[in-house]
Amino acid sequence: MDVTVTFPSDGVALLALDRPHRRNALDRALLDGLPDLLSELDADDRVRVLVITGRGGAFCAGGDLDVLAALGAETPDEARARMAREFDTARLLLEFRAPTVAAVDGAAVGAGMALALACDLRIGSPNAVFASPFIRMALVPDWGVTWLLARAAGQARATEIALSARKVGAAEALRVGLLDEIVPAPLDEALARAQGLAEADPAAAATKRLIAAATGTFQEAIDAEITEQLRAVRSPEFARRMGEWSQTVRGRSR
Q: Which are the contacts of 205, defined by CB distance < 8 A and separation ≥ 6?
């Protein structure tokens, strides 16, 4: 499987798609292997933040054309089982217990768009390009793109992007919510953000959980915040940071 996992700093795992000759398009090995890999990383206590990127100037160009060409030979039941297994990659990334950051350089197309949009933060280069070209092949968006795109850009804009199948460049992606920031070196920035989040663990993971669960009433959100805050104020990390902050404030007051 053409993917590498490294730990560039304490608590930060970097997952890099490594098929630059095909713009990191997902071949059969990646489609079959990514769900298990994400599950393993999610269960790994060393991973406090996950960064995803692609090598060689592309994030991910979606499904490899060789894979797409073979789909017509499946029975409906085979196709349903395969799609459920493959598309679970996006769900596993969306529900990853730790914060996730996408470093997007170049194309994020189809399933590649889903991988980026399923991350909590998305840092792009000026060359980042998003597209949902399914309709050009008489297909509907998949890998959760309909849900993820609507969540990021709103229903009206998501509909227009999906129906037009047009490319969304970096500047527009930032404006409509597909990117959070544009920088010359997105991987460097993503790793810097990730290191800060890893140092803030477990509060960063708890914040992610709270926002993901904030679909009920305001009072339910407050109750959940109280539960998490009670846990947070008892953590060693809070005690350490509170001590550092107190020393800083006392130093300024002298």
A: 48, 97, 98, 99
